[in-house]
Design brief:
By secondary structure, the chain is an alpha/beta fold. It has one domain: TIM Barrel. The chain is built from nine helices and nine strands. A nine-stranded mixed beta sheet has the order 1-9-8-7-6-5-4-2-3. It starts with 8 loop residues before the first strand and ends with a helix.
């Protein structure tokens, strides 16, 4: 029996723009709406715990201040990130497992913590093979190298906001299965070239369903979306196609 195709619509940062980003509430909302995949960001607290947060500082998404990398767990988990504390990585992945969601884990290290962040994420995955399908991505080549060495059987994607001259050789060296690209980079010719190299292309971050239709038409494998309600008919149709 053929494996079902992976979801094409990923709820960006958990709940897109409909819930506080990188929260369990956002993941629950995406699942309740009918999405089959979510994306969220992971970096290390000052205690070395992988947690869901996008920025290196706390001000924008919590009621705290200062750097995430210097805030210990006792202080971090006392903060309000939109009705709840910032979640631990393990909590988020287990919740995705409960809902049957594919979790795209963006390893997003604070500056200077690329290796440590990927190592800690890999260690938590190895500890109990957390109960959800996992796809890892990162802008950091170092983080991708660590994930390749530590958990080689799990798929990885390289996040890019610009195409470096050596992207083909680096994608091969890093062993990634996909490129997650800024919309501005995605062209029919590039998608065709990636397909020839065995690389899927996913695009971030979409605001309109018409653009998703165009991208799928040129062979893009998936899209990261913010206004989840605006894409809901397409996401539900995608869910039905997957079964």
């Amino acid at each position: 029996m053929l494996a079902p195709p992976p979801p094409r619509y990923f709820a960006h940062r958990g709940g897109g723009t409909l819930a506080p980003e990188n929260t369990l509430a956002g993941i629950r909302l995406a699942a309740r709406l009918g999405y089959r995949a979510v994306e969220f960001d992971v970096m290390l607290s000052g205690s070395g715990t992988p947690v869901l947060i996008h920025d290196e500082t706390l001000e924008r998404t919590t009621n705290g201040s200062g750097a995430v990398a210097t805030t210990d767990d006792a202080a971090l988990f006392a903060l309000d990130a939109g009705g709840e504390p910032p979640p631990r990585f393990a909590q988020a992945v287990r919740l995705c497992g409960e809902f049957g969601l594919l979790a795209n884990v963006e390893v997003k290290p604070a500056s200077g913590f690329e290796r440590q962040t990927a190592q800690r994420v890999a260690a938590e995955v190895r500890a109990d093979w957390l109960a959800s399908p996992l796809l890892f991505s990162s802008f950091s080549r170092t983080a991708l190298q660590v994930l390749q060495a530590e958990i080689p059987d799990l798929p990885r994607a390289w996040l890019l906001a610009a195409l470096p001259d050596d992207w083909r050789a680096e994608a091969r060296r890093l062993g990634v299965v996909a490129l997650h690209l800024d919309l501005a980079l995605v062209t029919p010719a590039l998608v065709r070239e990636c397909a020839g190299l065995g690389l899927a292309v996913r695009a971030y971050t979409l605001q309109t369903p018409a653009l998703a239709d165009y991208l799928f038409g040129i062979g893009v494998a998936g899209v990261f979306v913010d206004p989840l309600d605006r894409f809901l008919p397409q996401a539900l149709a995608d869910r039905s196609a997957i079964g």
